[in-house]
Amino acid sequence: MTAQHQEPGSIGRTPQQIRTSLRDDRSPRAIRAALPIEDLDAFDRQYRKALRTAADDLDLTPLHECVESWWRHAVLRADPVAYQDMIDQAEEVQRRVESGEPTGGMAWEEAEARLRRRISAGQ
C-alpha cells in the first residue's frame, strides 16, 4: 500500500469515506487528513509533544497513545452532525447531573462496549 497525499481537514469527503480511510490507514498523516480544520493545531501540538517525549524517554508509549486517541477522535468527528448530537446529549446529561435530576442512561461498561464495537466497525 502506498501513501497518498491527503489534504488536511475532511472537506469534500463523506463520513463513511473518512471512516473507511481511517480503518485502512491509522497513520498520523491519515488521522490528520481526516480531522476537521479546527482540530489541526491541537493535533499538531500534541503529536509533536508525544514525539519529543518518546525521544527523550526512549519509549514509544506516549506516541502510540497520542495516535490512538486522535484516531478515535477523528472517527467520532467524521460525521459532524452525529458528533454535535453526542456533545449536546453529553451537555444535557451533565446539566441534569449538576441539578440533581435523574439521568437514566446505561452502565459505563455497556456504553464503553458499544463505543468500542462502533469504532471497530469503523462507524
Automatic annotation (TrEMBL):
Biased composition (Polar residues): 1-20
Source organism superkingdom: Bacteria
Pfam families: DUF6247 (PF19760)
Region of interest: Disordered: 1-27
Protein name: Uncharacterized protein
Species for this entry: Sphaerimonospora thailandensis
